[in-house]
Amino acid sequence: MCTAILMVLSAYAPAQRRAATRPAVVTGYPPNVFTPVVDRPGLARVLLIGDSISIGYTLPVRDGLKDIANVHRALENAGPTTRGLERIDEWLGEGRWDVIHFNFGLHDLKQLQPGQRQVPLDSYEGNLKRLVARLKQTGATLIWATTTPVPEGAAQRDPADVPRYNETALRIMRENNITVNDLYSFASPRLAEIQLPRNVHYTPEGYARLAEPVIEAIRKALDQRRAAGVLTIDSEAGAAAPTAKHEVYEAKLSSVREYGNPVIDVELTVVFTSPSGKSTPRRAFWDGSNVWRVRFSPDEIGKWSWESRCSDVENRGLHGQRGLFRCVAYTGPNLLRARGPLKLSANRRHLVHSDGTPFFWLADTAWNGVLKARAAHWDAYLATRKSQGFTAVQFVATQWRAYDGEPAYTAKNDIRINPEFFRRLDAKVKAINDAGLVAAPVMMWAVGGQDPGHELSEKDAIVLGRYLCARWGAHNVLWILAGDGAYQGQRAERWRRIGQAIFGDRPSRPATLHPTGLQWIAGEFGREPWYSIIGYQSAHCEKPIAWLVNGPPATEWKKPPVLPVINLEPNYEAHLACDTKRPFDALAVRRALYRSLLVSPTAGVTYGHHGIWYWAEKPEIPLAHDHSGTAPPWDQAIESEGARSVRHLAQLFGSIQWWTLVPDPTLVENQPDDPMLCAPAARSEDGSLALIYLPQGGNLELNTRHLKQGLDIRWFDPSTGQYVPGGKVSSNALSIRPPSEGDYVLVIGGEG
């Protein structure tokens, strides 16, 4: 390139180098053409795509449209049509555009060798047609700029090529009804005044003159879109569509500064204001490079606004940014989204959706699922579990002892978040909700070793937890702060501080802890404002059944504070029992599930399978679980006998008002001394419904004085889902026996 060209473009060259390595962002009208523009709310969105000629007129076009449009451009020389095909999606980005002003030509007709054009005319035509087809998909008003003249003596170009390439382009534009801004005709009579000698480029004054027809064409197009009511002004930064109630709205912000460790060096909060005037702050999260994002789930229909607040108030890309979006009613088939996120019921005994619909917690354990599963396998898994009646999925959200893949973070002191790790997981977390299931991420496994809940300092654990909340908290989630840890004594104090710092006094989503086996932590955490569920683990041994049927789950629920009680980890199907070394079969799984549901006020329970929690791809012993036995592949485990039993369980509890059930051991007069044979019983306070689980057949002597007379009695086979009539409640005492010696559920009342 000649010296004159270098002089004209020297102001742009440093910007090109910076954009390639670390794009900087400024607000308003940047002094540099390659600085990405931060949208100002209330203005239309315009994109310029073109070569160095368009680079030259970008700044005066921005200045001329500064009151009506955010004028963006491709952050590089768009070059020939071949480069356009490679980069068009990158240039278009994520938002919606009102007007796209574009050109290709000067680099296509450039001669690499005498007579050898970089893109021959026939290829140029095909490429341009493909580019036009892609641009039309945006819904923007398209304006084609003809290629400007090549003067005699200009290097590597033939002046006669420009009309030929322009004519081809004009034919394509006519066929597609695209507006033409004829810069060739505008510049031709003025070349002596505005163009450099023997050079395709222009003087600064010349670029200002070229900007005039560009500004005029864009203004006219914006006026037409405004008259038609299709400007993006009423949507944040050109959001593609309104956000439905309880779905996820996302806004992207771009930092103008670099930070050594963004998640520690900067705090970014976005305050959302609802149509009714309610303000809700949400943390934003760093997503790599200079990108920050905020996600939010609106709960009011109408126009929302937001404003960002950054601890670095001088960072104008993050501080003081504003936006608008519109929330509309959800009209889809996903009941999870229609009913809204989870919260405690009025009596604090179970979970409900935000609209008050009771939510039955029937979770599957897929600790490694989000971490390891392929996308197609994950979708198939979720569809199957949804069809089997599951309502939630528990998974580990960061590295832990049974996963040796990419880490979520590095450094134990001053934690360094790995955003690529979380970007890889985003789609699978969203897919859980898309399937109609609640996501239950374990933020930090906490057994020992390199588990985050064990190795991280309190400060870094808080940073990691806040990052997870910011990234996924707009989804329908129930947070499990830590997994499999011991949370008593001084450890309880530590986790109370961590939980308070992450969730605060009024968390937007419920949260709990998953403790180690046979540990009851209601006393340590029950009064924490963020702690929503008394979760426990009855663990993977056969003999300590007494802890479940006679211990804390069966007795402590009566004590304040009142909260749902849920067994988050009973025995896993196909997992070896820690004491007998026998694998748990479907019967053992059913016994654990039904006992858990009936020894405390019914709120829900979690199921697990040895092949699913580890997400085994082949028969293998799980990492760091040498004594658990061989796990079968997940795709074999998913249709196990235990999973079929869960389907029947879901159908049973879906047919009754389960949320009215409260334990009543007095229903069974002949309760055996052996905890293994104990028959847990529960009934509604009004006496219209009762359930009793028999783990092994046998005769039942019932005390029915608290039940309504005349109720139907049915035997439910939990292995098949079949009912057998058992008579009616006809007195205050009944003697009754199941149809066979297997396990059964006695269902009294509850029809319809």
Question: Can you walk through the features of this model?
Answer:
The chain has 752 residues and is an alpha/beta fold. The protein has 4 domains: 3-228, 3-Layer(aba) Sandwich (Rossmann fold), CATH 3.40.50; 242-331, Immunoglobulins (Immunoglobulin-like, Sandwich); 337-654, Glycosidases (TIM Barrel), CATH 3.20.20.80; 664-749, Sandwich (Immunoglobulin-like), CATH 2.60.40. 31% of the residues lie in helices and 22% in strands. It has 24 helices and 38 strands. The strands form 11 sheets. Strands 27-26-25-22-21-30 form a 6-stranded parallel sheet. It has a 6-stranded antiparallel sheet with strand order 31-32-33-38-35-36. α17 (490-503) links the parallel β26 and β27 (511-515). Residues 1-30 and 234-240 have low confidence and may be disordered.
Question: Going by CATH, what is the homologous superfamily of the largest domain?
Answer: Glycosidases
Biggest β-sheet description: 6 strands, parallel
What is the count of β-strands? 38
How large is the count of helical segments? 24
Unreliable stretches (pLDDT < 50, length at least 5) are: 1-30, 234-240
Compute the average pLDDT.
Answer: 92
Helical content band: 25-40%
Distance between the termini: 83 Å
Question: Which strand order do you get reading across the main beta sheet?
Answer: 27-26-25-22-21-30
Strand content: 15-25%
Radius of gyration: 33 Å
